[in-house]
């Protein structure tokens, strides 16, 4: 019987948080190349439109650099072009140096989306491809409101796109267009060659090179992972391709297998670099409290987060109000290397208030004097980040 190395739960949590930029204090510069380094380390930052406090991508970056402000991101996206927007498991901001490896995604999506979107009663969107491209060539960047003159407009949901809007999205997802900017969070598209630098457009790795890059880069950012978790990280390779990669790397002794202890003391077999156990003595994160986005990379894989931290989290945006356990958009709370609760808060922008409706601690977590002080400090930092003047608490906000 093979005896696999064992990674304790505390070591696993610290390694995982270290790979996600949540072990060191969130100090330091948050602009230009320094901000790009943060995103490179994470791999990508998920984009989401919900803006109860700030949008997800800004919340993610602020949790790692408290000096970060939303205005710091736009120059990298729209001026320097060192970042681009596309899909991983969802819409995301990604380093442009990774762009060549998105060609495999473009190729795979180009056929899959045609079939899927036809099934969603979007007949006719393929007929708009050349017309949309020609309009952008002649008149410059365009959003969904700029194309499809005379076409019936729906509510704006993905299920109700007009044909030219569907064509825009398809041409972006298949790599012919890029998001050049967002106006009031609405995507504006341009030809890829007008947006991206030549070095990004000119490099064309083979599918095998991209699969190797994607699996290797995912494992480095996860620290330890199953083949399924490796495949899901970028949502670019298939589980079978990730398993095959793991088998090859094991044979070459470039990775090893180990057992990771979960929060409930169960073991789960995972892959890791041979030197990973050396990181098991990482110092603990600072005891400060951080308010995380529901889409934070450390929580994106809900099952993994529950195994490591014993923290069950569900977004209740699409749950009817009467059936919600916590709230519409509730933020997880990280203290050191523990997820200690969740908080329901929302900006009242006209009044300049960050309104806190409720804080629910996890089992065994007491909101004593010191912890309350740290939580209030985190809320005050969040209020300043969101441009609010102060924090206001609704009666009964401290829940059991």
Explain what you see:
With 400 residues, the chain is α+β, with helices and mostly antiparallel strands. The termini are far apart. The longest helix is centred in the first third of the chain and has 17 residues. The protein is globular. The strands form four sheets. It has a five-stranded mixed sheet with strand order 10-11-12-13-14, covered by helices on one side. Strands 1-8-9-7 form a four-stranded mixed sheet. It has 14 helices and 14 strands.
H/E series, N to C? EHHEHHEEHHHEEHHHEHHEEEHEEEHE
Count of extended strands: 14
Q: Could you say which overall geometry the principal axes of the C-alpha atoms support?
A: globular
Number of helices: 14
What is the rounded distance between the termini? 47 Å
**Helix coverage percent:** 25-40%
Radius of gyration based on Cα positions: 22 Å
Spatial arrangement of strands, main beta sheet:
10-11-12-13-14
Low-confidence blocks of residues: none
The proportion of strand residues reads 15-25%
Mean pLDDT rating: 93
Helix and strand layout, with pairings?
Layout (H helix, E strand, L loop, with lengths): L5 E2 L1 H11 L12 H11 L2 E2 L9 H7 L11 H6 L3 E5 L3 E5 L7 H17 L9 H11 L23 H11 L3 E7 L2 E6 H4 L2 H5 L4 H16 L1 E2 L1 H8 L4 H13 L4 E6 L5 E6 L16 E3 L10 H8 L20 E6 L2 E11 L4 E9 L7 H17 L4 E4 L7
Parallel strand pairs: 1-8, 13-14
Antiparallel strand pairs: 2-4, 3-4, 5-6, 7-9, 8-9, 10-11, 11-12, 12-13
Helix pairs in contact: 5-7, 10-11, 11-12
Summarize the entry for a quick read:
The protein is an alpha+beta fold and 400 residues long. The chain has helices at 9-19, 32-42, 56-62, 74-79, 103-119, 129-139, 163-173, 192-195, 198-202, 207-222, 227-234, 239-251, 302-309, 369-385; strands spanning 6-7, 45-46, 83-87, 91-95, 177-183, 186-191, 224-225, 256-261, 267-272, 289-291, 330-335, 338-348, 353-361, 390-393.
């Amino acid at each position: 019987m093979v005896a696999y190395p064992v990674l304790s739960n505390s070591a696993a949590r610290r390694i995982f948080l270290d790979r996600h930029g949540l072990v060191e204090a969130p100090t330091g510069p948050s602009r230009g190349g320094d901000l790009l380094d943060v995103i490179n380390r994470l791999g990508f930052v998920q984009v989401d439109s919900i803006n109860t406090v700030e949008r997800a991508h800004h919340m993610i970056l602020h949790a790692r650099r408290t000096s970060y402000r939303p205005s710091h991101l736009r120059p990298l996206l729209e001026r320097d072009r060192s970042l681009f927007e596309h899909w991983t498991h969802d819409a995301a901001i990604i380093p442009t140096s990774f762009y060549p490896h998105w060609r495999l995604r473009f190729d795979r999506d180009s056929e899959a989306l045609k079939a899927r979107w036809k099934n969603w009663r979007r007949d006719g969107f393929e007929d708009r491809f050349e017309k949309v491209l020609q309009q952008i060539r002649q008149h410059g960047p365009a959003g969904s409101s700029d194309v499809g003159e005379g076409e019936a407009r729906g509510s704006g949901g993905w299920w109700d796109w007009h044909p030219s809007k569907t064509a825009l999205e398809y041409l972006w997802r298949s790599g012919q267009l890029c998001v050049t900017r967002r106006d009031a969070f609405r995507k504006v598209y341009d030809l890829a060659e007008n947006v991206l630098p030549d070095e990004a457009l000119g490099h064309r790795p083979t599918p095998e090179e991209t699969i190797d890059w994607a699996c290797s880069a995912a494992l480095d950012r996860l620290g330890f992972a199953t083949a399924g978790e490796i495949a899901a990280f970028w949502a670019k390779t298939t589980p079978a391709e990730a398993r095959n990669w793991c088998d090859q790397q094991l044979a070459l002794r470039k990775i090893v297998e180990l057992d990771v202890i979960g929060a409930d003391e169960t073991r789960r077999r995972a892959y890791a670099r041979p030197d990973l156990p050396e990181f098991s003595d990482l110092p603990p994160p600072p005891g400060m409290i951080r308010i995380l986005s529901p889409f934070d990379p450390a929580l994106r894989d809900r099952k993994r987060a529950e195994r490591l931290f014993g923290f069950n989290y569900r977004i209740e945006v699409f749950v009817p109000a009467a059936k919600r356990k916590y709230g519409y958009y509730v933020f997880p709370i990280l203290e050191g290397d523990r997820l200690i609760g969740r908080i329901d808060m929302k900006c009242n922008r006209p009044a300049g208030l960050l309104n806190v409706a409720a804080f629910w601690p996890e089992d065994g977590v007491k909101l004593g004097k010191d912890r309350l002080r740290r939580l209030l400090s985190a809320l005050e930092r969040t209020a300043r980040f969101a441009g609010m003047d102060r924090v206001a608490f609704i009666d009964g906000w401290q829940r059991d």
